[in-house]
Predict the 3D structure of the following.
Amino acid sequence: RLGENMKIDTRLLTNLLKRTQRHQHVAGKAQPQVQSTILYAKEDRVTTTNLVRDGKTSLSVFRLPAETDGTVLIPIADIDKALGILSAHGSPVSVTLDYDRVVFKSGRKTTRLISSIDGTAFLHGQETIQEWSRKSDELANKFVFDDNEFKGYTMRDGSLHEPLTTITVDCNEFYDALKADSINNQKLNRYQLAVKDGVIRIGVGDEMKGFTFTDLEHESKGIETFEWTFEGGLDNVMFGLGGTCQIHFLDFRELNQGMRIVIDFGEAGWVYQAGIIE
């Protein structure tokens, strides 16, 4: 609503927007999977909920601490432009919606940016930011959590599709394994996740420039043996996170839809990613 204000650490907001934007490399060129978002702030949290460009293969829900004076909905029509503004501001920064403008203020500096929920969610797209946000929320609601614990995905018939297995790993170690995709500037944006004999192995790269695999220690529940490949700029999803995360594997192979994962960061949010079907 107009005039309501959100205050947040500038570095944290920058991190939130970069993770929401989630660049991935396609044919060697970095491309954002999300170009716009809505900052939904309530009480002591700000949340972004976004489907990626293709509208089906991945969804992210990210949360960070923030101060608000009510329920605040702030459209960010161009994440790149918002990041450019934040780079010039100190911390903390207050963010306010003023009709069709978003106002960023820190110290004595104020920046105004034209931004509206009626803008298009993607360049050359047809759906508005508001429509894309509604579509993202509808899918997010199909993922069932109980006391921050992921339970499963709601199928069309109303049944709950529970994880085949759940693995808990260190976020920094997982990120380090994924970013090895950049060795010799490969950036193939492909991550093999293999579970076998109590080990999760992350494989990235090509042997022409260097294939790297990392075996991670983990806690697990319901271990099975399988291997599947994922894309989606997962290294950028993991950037800047500490502690542990849970990787929930959803098995849709009987429906010819492959494997899917939900990476659960607890209070910091979660990411759904569909695997590659070849």
The mean pLDDT is 92. The longest strand covers residues 58-65. The first helix runs from residue 10 to 21.
